[in-house]
Amino acid sequence: MLYALLFPLAGTIHFFNLFRYITFRAGGGCLTALVVSFWLGPKLIRWLKSMQRHGQPIRLDGPERHLIEKKGTPTMGGVLILAAFGISTLLWADLDNGYVWAALFVTMGYGAVGFADDFLKLTRRNTKGVNGRVKLICQAVIGLIAAVWITSLMPAPLGSELAVPVFKHLLIPFGFIFPLIAMFVMMGASNSVNLTDGLDGLAIVPTIIAAGVFALIAYLVGNHIFAGYLQINFIPGAGELTIFLTSLIGAGLGFLWFNAPPAAVFMGDTGSLSLGGALGAVAVAVKCEIVLAIVGGLFVVETVSVIIQVFWYKRTGRRVFLMAPLHHHFEKKGWAEPTIVIRFWIIAMILALVGLATLKIR
Known about the structure:
The chain has one domain (about 25-290). Helices cover about 65% and strands about 0% of the residues. The chain is built from 15 helices and 2 strands. The chain has helices spanning about 1-5, 20-50, 65-70, 80-90, 100-125, 130-155, 180-195, 205-220, 225-230, 240-260, 270-285, 290-295, 295-315, 325-330, 335-360; strands spanning about 160-165, 170-175. A two-stranded antiparallel sheet has the order 1-2.
């Protein structure tokens, strides 16, 4: 919005020429989302507490201390992330850019699914919200629409190909079925972040780290000079997603202020599903779907731990882990919550560096 309003005035007022630069607007987006989060956060938390007298329903089969320490903490804090991030993106991004709208569509769409899930959990006072099959169908529809939308914006035949990191210009052609692959990337990322969200600050910091990595990637693939130097796929217009992601970082940092141990609010499915969907949509748009699996490797491991646990228990009646997802396994082993969270953050940072390295190793 500000780009459309102020940049045309650059001929009269030279200062407004700054709005042509993605880097300037990316910084503005991050700071705006952070300020909105700080301003809106206390008000939203008070309102959520007044609406949720008993807070988020706690799993009875989970770690015992959760029933005491986390009882009464309100959920649906993802509304704060979506509000701050949405306002900032609309203010600072070029709203003529289709990639921004497609990514917003996925983020808000998955956020709506998560909101419905959180709402049902609260009204029913149990940990079962929207039916799992219904939730997946909604995610699939939103993801498929976005996948078709994003691929239609790309130059042919890039939109129907899967990029392989490390190897120069290696693209695997999937033709008309590529939107289905892109849909699964978004769904997988969304549900992986959702599974990781189980301890104070555990999901939001790795999400911020991944968003930072992809903000840099989006800027590079959207710049013809940098893309040529690094020998990565140049995607015209994708650089605008940098503002989308820095706004997400600002909103995430603002939420972390209130989610830091002991959390004053949980993000709920409203936040976790939307954040994962945002990362998935951007990964598809910048042709780094496989890189997302590296950068978001922590989310992948958490998801795999659940798959292994369910598969092995159904086959043998025994558990591989004391409890899944993996962070609960370490809780059951007696690790303190801050120890688990900080060590997982460190792992997320290491994986982010590995993911960035794929841009240069060619």
